[in-house]
Amino acid sequence: MNAAGGFVPPTIIFPRKNSSEQLKKGAPPGTLFAFHPSGWIQTELFTKWFDHFLKRTNPTKDSPVLLILDGHHSHTRNTDVFIKARENFLTILCLPPHTSHKMQPLDKTVMGALKTFYSEEIRLFMRAHNRAVTHFDMGELFGRAYTKIETAERSIKGFSTTGIYPFRRDVFSDEDFLAEQQRHHVPHSVTADFPENNEPALCHSPNILPKDIAPIPQLKKK
Predict the structure, then answer these.
(1) 188 in a domain, yes or no?
(2) Where would you find the membrane-spanning parts of this chain (predicted)?
(3) Phi, psi dihedrals of residue 80, rounded to the nearest 5°
């Protein structure tokens, strides 16, 4: 979403290898569908999303685009995306670690509401059909929930409450920074050993899967 109230169609990642037209039924128009066994964002999938974003925003020399991201490794260690950004008049800004819950517009005004509306759609579906939700139902249920949050008001408010646009230096108080420092402070006496291949967490907010927005409930056997 942007500070003017617009939205780029979303991307849905299904935890499977193969596509199916049934999975796409009822999803928001223009949705990009991706597939991976883990269901998580990967560097290659983020590159596909970036192409999707470029096509929808069409940045130019006279109308460049600023893309604000969290620090997930698929964003920060993606050479293909960096090259495409330079070639297409797009600047990428990554938020500092552990700040997306305060500084990311999407987190502030959209994701909480989307989770609520999606959970309600699942509840209504199960009541009406007397069965559990499957992957083939999720596109339509997500589409209904997404329609309710895709509003200019939410988008504009997300950028204003974070102080990004209109720009406000004083949107956060000294207490906000102090509380964050205390929350992540590690006493000097505490040490920990980490495996060499263990990557540090770069982002406060994890990637969100459809099943994480509202875990698919199971019907109780009578």
Answers:
(1) no
(2) none
(3) -60, -40
